[in-house]
Design a protein that fits this description.
With 164 residues, the protein is α/β, with parallel strands linked by helices. The protein has one domain: Rossmann fold (3-Layer(aba) Sandwich), CATH 3.40.50. It is built from 4 helices and 8 strands. The strands form 2 sheets. A 6-stranded mixed β-sheet has the order 4-3-2-5-6-7, with helices on both faces. The protein has a two-stranded parallel ribbon with strand order 1-8. The radius of gyration is 16 Å and the shape is globular. The two termini are 26 Å apart. This is Phosphoribosyltransferase. Keywords: Glycosyltransferase, Transferase. One of its GO terms (molecular function) is glycosyltransferase activity. Pfam families: Pribosyltran (PF00156).
């Protein structure tokens, strides 16, 4: 098992405020925050409040299937956002981590022909990422245990015994 970095709820608040401060200090004024589900939903929501941006969209991308286990390529899951809703807007794409960078690359490509400009914000980025996020709270090479995803799913009793 790879080494882990723990990310706490207290750090979550600190990180989202710091990322929002980076955005403001850069002069970028997003019209829309686009949270990548699922990991980017919580930071996108917190940053939308911090940036006083009421337009918060989501896009659902599946890539990771477990710790350091992923599909060959990231895949958008339905319902897919109507890219025309982003026409000529300044869009801040938000995710929890830029690990390989392929998810951010997919979402930026999806937006490219519609938006005025995109920028990216992540809680963590890894040096190997093919996308260098515009805004990042911290860099790491470790697997990150986020408080919203570090515990196993809660299932119904019938789900737990189905394979027995």
């Amino acid at each position: 098992m790879a080494a882990h970095e723990r990310f706490s709820w207290a750090e979550f608040g600190e990180a989202c405020r710091e990322l929002s401060r980076q955005v403001v200090d850069s002069g970028f004024r997003p019209d829309v925050l686009l949270g990548i589900a699922r990991g980017g939903l919580l930071p996108a929501g917190a940053m939308a409040y911090a940036l006083d941006c009421k337009n918060l969209f989501t896009i659902n991308v599946e890539f990771y299937t477990g710790e350091d286990a992923r599909l060959d390529v990231p895949v958008m899951l339905p319902p897919v956002l109507n890219a025309a809703d982003l026409d000529n807007l300044e869009v801040l794409i938000v995710d929890d981590v830029a690990d390989t960078g392929k998810t951010l690359e997919l979402v930026e490509a999806f937006c490219a022909d519609h938006v005025a400009q995109t920028r990216t914000a992540v809680l963590y980025h890894k040096p190997r990422s093919i996308i260098r996020p515009d805004y990042s709270w911290r860099q790491t090479e470790l697997w990150i245990d986020f408080p919203w995803s570090s515990e196993p799913p809660i299932t119904r009793p019938s789900d737990r015994t189905a394979g027995a």
